[in-house]
Amino acid sequence: MTDRAYWHHVAATVRFPTLAIIDGRKVPAVSGSTFASINPATGEVLADVAECDTRDIDLAVAAARRAFEAGTWRDQPPAARKTVLLRLAELLRAELPQLAALESLDMGKLVRDAHGNDIANAINILQWHAEEADKIYDEIAPLPAGNVGLVRRVPLGVVGAVVPWNFPFNMAIWKCIPALVAGNSVVLKPAEQSPFTALRLGELALEAGLPAGVLNVVPGYGETAGKALGLHMDVDCLAFTGSTAVGKLFLRYSGESNMKQVWLECGGKSPAIVFPDCNDLAYAADQIASGIFYNQGQVCSASSRLYVHKAIATEFMDLIRARTVRYRPGDPLDPSSGLGAMVDAKHAANVMRYVEAGKYEADLIAGGRTAEVNGAGSFIEPTVFANVPPSATIAREEIFGPVLAASTFEDEAEAIRLANDSIYGLAASIFTDDLSRVHRVSERITAGVVAVNVVDPVNPAVPFGGFKQSGTGRDLSRHAIDKYTSLRTTWIRHRH
Ligand code: NAD
User: Fold this and answer.
1) Is pTM, for the whole model, over 0.85?
2) What does the pLDDT average to over 473-495?
3) Which of 18, 210, 429, 485: CA 20 to 30 A from 447?
4) Are residues 55 and 169 in the same domain?
């Protein structure tokens, strides 16, 4: 039974992990400080979490280095590493409802989505990567006779991972598991808004048999703990997901410290284009509404810009507006709610500043207001603007909220030009039933993922990541492993 009463029971009985995990032990911050984790749907303090800073990061990096040098993880047979990670997947699966409740309480996400989608998918992704562990082959180079060239993928050493609050558990899995599969040690810093599921991941990894120091989880603020990881002289690689502004800081941190490799998954302002030859406009509207309103629009690849062909614009915008009623804000623990809470009051206020600006820039056709649920919380109505000029702030900047900016186009060339008119290049979607157009348009859109007749598809088999200021490198797929390895050439001359 997974109704509202069930989820309130799970939420009332779930344990909040609050201690950092460093060198295989659950520890408070060296300073003894804590920060309050707040439920954005109610304003209540859920728990006080260890507020780690530079000293804790130093301890975690040292533990990760020791584990790496001792070879407790990287030197295990690949099949043994796979077994540990598959056991972790089983332990996580057994706790799926508790993890979903933690995620929902921590950042306002609908528990229905956390349970049915986000956490369940992340565990599948963990399993997918784990199964790769004993299937990574190396190369032998075509050298002259008498020589053998081995080209091997080797782990980098200590990987730092700094992740955001919008998909806290998923982002932790996307970063940590390929790094672990490759044989590295990891120091993970979750976002201060949403530390619980990352901490639980660290606890269960130890239970599954991951040796001490191989996965350290260090909660704390970005400007202290995150920065310390970025500037650390003994971190070999930093994998980041978050805003473009902070992504740029990590490039600087690297340049100011040890030139660690930096991989960035940053912001987006993803276009969705609807062509007049799309045969099922109702379906396209379902997809685009879900693409912008899922997770309250707090999705890096959200379809936040909509371009509709002039000939179908009136009909299509009516379909979009009609769908907003499905996304009525409500108690995130109630499976019948349409939209959860924004991550916190500060972010909700920021999104509302964009909405207010949008009212002067374009035509508001749905939403545009905050909402209260049971007299509390940071809720925002699903909001749609039409006739948005390309120069409008709401068409250019990442709002990271349930706000759709729509406009029209006259021909294919204009649609492509509008879609590419952005500093971002994370994802795009096009709706058309003309196969030639599918190829023509998708080849000319500058985005890491171009989805045709679907919005925001995610699968571990395909890479995810962006062009331009959406970042560098790719998460998911076999290509994710590349980020956490380097190539070592061993040249053997066996005939003198
Ligand atoms: P953010 O950049 O503010 O924070 C992300 C992480 O960086 C957090 O752990 C935070 O503590 C840390 N951080 C913040 N300031 C820091 C600093 N000065 N030095 C070091 N670390 C610092 O982003 P957010 O608000 O948590 O997340 C929203 C952003 O994440 C959006 O821009 C969204 O597009 C992006 N995002 C991108 C992807 C992707 O795959 N491309 C996925 C999810 C989210």
Assistant:
1) yes
2) 95
3) 485
4) yes
